[in-house]
């Protein structure tokens, strides 16, 4: 295959170095070799975006629709191929990988339609004879920095609206998973998009990401990643008054009440806590369970976890693939030790597993007898590790659910309309699920949270316009 290059100003460009992309299911499998950009490459990408901006900012809705529809159609047609690539480089099971590729296609197609629906307002002035028009215009150049856990969907839900609203893009994917990002860039290179309107710069966050954050020509930065890095992104952008959008961590509660359907509750908890190897910011990492159903719930959870197949992400029948890399596995193992040292009971799991191919396999772990004050209930683990917190009743469950520095997603399993309605109103989270996993969202509605989980305007759906456009009010005296 050779080295997969960066894409700058409509041309494929060598990097300052190279990096192998390793399959976490099979460490002997090199997915590909990808170029590493440096700060000079970012500067060239920004210059290319600046040159393209006047034309693309003023492109017609039809031009933008055609580009995004082309990309969406090709990803959809190649969703099995791209899903396999995703599963190889990130470790999601193949059905999850194909599902994520399908979602990326749907996102591009949705924003193709949004490009045709950009609206303004004409209102009466308080002054006689004066016309007032309110319109949305592109921000200009948008820096996009994405994480490794959703290597095609998250780039899609940032790149598609950025282009739909007429912005130019400088895109840095996670260094760990460049394959899907490169595939999107290659499709965009054939979409009819003007040279420089989209640029791909792969490499380390400390080099490439920092160069994006500090470049004065980049008017907005959209970032998804860790809380600590997000705070740095916010501070750096604020110092130069750039617009910023952050999606960060979660410590999401799943409340299970005595009246819950046990099968529904266990299904939602296992899916939310452990699928995608628990590597989702929306994962159900805290299971808040009332005492009347607690023991039956724990027994059913353990039985279900034991039935799960943990193996190669590409192998048929695999329920859970590997952890993404060695450092993430080490972090998961560290928290397993911390939980036991705090007095939590490891009810099941937590063992490093050996399979036919060398990979980063970890048995899903369930802690019981935990309190919400423990570190394993305060800090994001980002792996297949969940805790059970026993509570007396709904009121205590709601209090515990809200007792967190995060506020991304929250769920409740109950057959009580009263409690479901109360929880939707009072859960301190950006997204609330009733009898559903806390992970798993639609692509056409807002995504985001509150507290330490999110900062800035929401992502996805028509709410994306709040970040990717700026509002202009024009007054005219005819």
Automatic annotation (TrEMBL):
The active site is at 247. It comes from the Bacteria. Keywords: Oxidoreductase. InterPro entries: Ald_DH/histidinol_DH, Ald_DH_C, Ald_DH_CS_CYS, Ald_DH_CS_GLU, Ald_DH_N, Aldehyde_DH_dom. Gene3D superfamilies: Aldehyde Dehydrogenase, Chain A, domain 1, Aldehyde Dehydrogenase, Chain A, domain 2. One of its GO terms (molecular function) is oxidoreductase activity, acting on the aldehyde or oxo group of donors, NAD or NADP as acceptor. Residues 12-473 form the Aldehyde dehydrogenase domain. The keyword ATP-binding does not apply. Transmembrane segments: none annotated. Signal peptide: none annotated. The keyword tRNA-binding does not apply. Pfam families: Aldedh. Belongs to the aldehyde dehydrogenase family. This is Dehydrogenase. It comes from Thalassobaculum fulvum.
């Amino acid at each position: 295959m050779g080295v997969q290059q960066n894409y700058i100003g409509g041309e494929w460009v060598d990097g300052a170095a190279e990096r192998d992309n390793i399959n976490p299911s099979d460490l002997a499998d090199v997915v590909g070799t990808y170029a590493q950009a440096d700060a000079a490459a970012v500067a060239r990408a920004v210059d290319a975006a600046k040159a393209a901006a006047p034309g693309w900012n003023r492109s017609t809705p039809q031009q933008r629709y055609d580009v995004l529809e082309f990309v969406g159609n090709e990803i959809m047609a190649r969703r099995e191929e791209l899903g396999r690539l995703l599963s190889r480089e990130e470790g999601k099971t193949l059905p999850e990988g194909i599902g994520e590729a399908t979602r990326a296609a749907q996102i591009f197609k949705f924003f193709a339609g949004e490009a045709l629906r950009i609206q303004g307002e004409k209102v009466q002035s308080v002054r006689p004879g004066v016309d007032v028009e309110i319109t949305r215009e592109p921000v200009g150049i948008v820096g996009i920095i994405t994480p490794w856990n959703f290597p095609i969907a998250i780039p899609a839900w940032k790149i598609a609206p950025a282009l739909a609203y007429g912005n130019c893009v400088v895109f840095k994917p996670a260094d760990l998973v460049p394959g899907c990002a490169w595939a999107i860039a290659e499709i965009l290179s054939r979409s009819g998009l003007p040279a420089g309107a989209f640029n791909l710069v792969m490499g380390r966050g400390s080099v490439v990401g920092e160069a994006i954050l500090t470049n004065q020509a980049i008017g907005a930065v959209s970032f998804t990643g860790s809380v600590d890095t997000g705070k740095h992104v916010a501070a750096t952008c604020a110092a130069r008054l750039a617009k910023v959008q952050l999606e960060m961590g979660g410590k999401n509660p799943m409340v299970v009440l005595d009246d819950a359907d046990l099968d529904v509750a266990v299904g939602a908890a296992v899916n939310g806590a452990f699928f995608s190897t628990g590597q989702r910011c929306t994962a159900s990492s805290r299971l808040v369970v009332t005492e009347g159903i607690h023991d039956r719930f724990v027994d059913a959870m353990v039985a279900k976890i034991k039935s799960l197949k943990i193996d190669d992400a590409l192998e048929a029948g695999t329920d859970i693939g590997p952890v993404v890399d060695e450092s993430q596995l080490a972090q998961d193992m560290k928290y397993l030790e911390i939980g036991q040292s705090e007095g939590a009971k490891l009810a099941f799991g937590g063992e490093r597993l050996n399979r036919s191919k060398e990979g980063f396999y970890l048995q899903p772990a369930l802690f019981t007898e935990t309190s919400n004050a423990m570190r394993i209930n305060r800090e994001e683990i980002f792996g297949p590790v969940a805790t059970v917190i026993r509570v007396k009743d709904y009121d205590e469950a709601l209090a515990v659910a809200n007792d967190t520095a995060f506020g991304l997603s929250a769920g409740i399993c109950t057959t009580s309309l009263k409690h479901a309605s109360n929880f939707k109103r009072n859960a301190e989270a950006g997204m609330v699920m009733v009898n559903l996993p806390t992970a798993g969202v639609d692509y056409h509605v807002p995504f985001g949270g509150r507290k330490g989980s999110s900062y800035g305007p929401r992502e996805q759906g028509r709410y994306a316009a709040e970040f990717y456009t700026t509002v202009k009010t024009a007054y005219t005296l005819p």
